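Recall that a protein's primary structure is simply its ordered list of amino acids. Everything else, from secondary elements to tertiary packing, is in principle encoded there. The following example makes that idea concrete.
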Amino acid sequence: MCESERALMRENVLAWEPATALFVPDRDPLVFYRRLAGLAAVLVRPGGSIWLEINERLGPETAALFSATAFEQVAVLADFLGRPRFVRAVRR
């Protein structure tokens, strides 16, 4: 989540998870996904897949990072409430 979304986070999550695991700077919300896309392009074997839980407001942007690297069949998928919460990508 972006730092500006901190107020939306439930208190029980804030009490147990470190802020560095929950929040990214507003100026670069895809910082970790950019790094993951690069690492996954090297580490995931052809035909293998990567699944990511994402910020529901950043689905297309997150998917685009993987489409621009070594992945195909990149899709934004919904959670059980119908919110876009996952990206799945298959290594070419």
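Strands lie at 49-53, 71-78, 84-91. Residues 80 and 86 are 11 Å apart (CA to CA).
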